[in-house]
Each structure stands twice: as C-alpha cells, then as structure tokens.
Amino acid sequence: MELEMDIEDWPAGDWEALAERAADAASQVVESLANPRLVTSLLFTSDARIHELNRDWRQRDKPTNVLSFPMLERTDLVHLDPDGPPEMLGDIALAYETCAREAEEKGVPLEHHASHLIVHGLLHLAGYDHEISDADAEEMEALEVKALALLDIGNPYSDHETP
User: What family is it from (predicted)?
Assistant: First the structure.
C-alpha cells in the first residue's frame, strides 16, 4: 500500500515513517490491505480542520481523533487483483490536539497513540466497523491489538476505551 501524506499542524517528528510502519503492521494482520495497488491519503492536521471535516461529511459538529473515508467496498477490496493501476482505498485524517490529549490521559507516548489511530483508520477503510455490533467491535479490537503488537505497542484496550 502506498501512503500519500500531508502533515500540517503537528509538531516536528518522523510522522511519515511512523505511518509507514503502522500501515505495514495493519497489512500484516489484514491481508487485503497488503495489495500493492492500494493508495491511501493520510492527513495529520488540527482539531479545527477535523471539526470541519466531521461536520461537513459526518454531520457531527465536533472534533474527533481520527476520521476515515473509505472509497472501496469491503468485497471489492477483498477481490481486488494485485495487478493493475493504483486504486484509492480512502482517506484518513488525524487531529493533533485530540490525539495529544488522549495520549496524555492514557499515559502513552503520542507516537503510540497515533500509530493506533492509523491502524484503526486503515481497518475502517478495509471495511471493519466497531459500531455495528459488540462482535464486530471485538474483532476490530483484536486486529488492532495484533497489529500494534508487531510495533511493540501494548494493548490500548486494557481499559476498553474505543478510539
């Protein structure tokens, strides 16, 4: 999977490398994400911008930590031939202030929380949804925990908070 990244309103850091590692881990636990044709845009931005996106596209008038905008149906993704032109998987946006606050509240490094949210967003793009049912939430959480373990990041759900 290729990541197209735009970093604005985040502190200095190697966010590109962090995102590449998170995407690689997600691809290891969800085979369909490993398709070389996939392209995902990733925006590191501010709460103000996330608030706008959430209001305009989700009719939720508040900031949030991560937004995902899938462009492929899960069945299309699963059956996507690895040969062919690039295929847009979707867009992910991360809000700096919310991510930083949540990381501090959880007592984890911002880099770990951002990695978790990128994995979480990629799973949404792959068709997973924790809001459908408890079983779907458990499946998604298990995949996240597995991907994060590949990054040497502990289980973010030990206190059962959902991103």
Answer: Belongs to the endoribonuclease YbeY family.
Pick the closest to residue 102 from 71, 66, 145 (CA basis). Answer: 66
Q: Is the pLDDT of residue 162 over 60?
A: no
Q: Rounded to whole angstroms, how far apart are CA atoms 133 and 140?
A: 11
pLDDT at 129: 82
Query: For residues 67 and 22, is the Cβ–Cβ distance under 8 A?
Result: no
Q: Is 116 annotated as a binding residue?
A: no
Contact between residue 65 and residue 156 where contact means Cβ atoms under 8 Å apart = no
Instruction: Summarize pLDDT for 65-92 with one digit per residue, the tens.
Output: 999 999 999 999 999 999 999 999 999 9
The domains located in the chain, with CATH, are 2-150 (3.40.390.30)
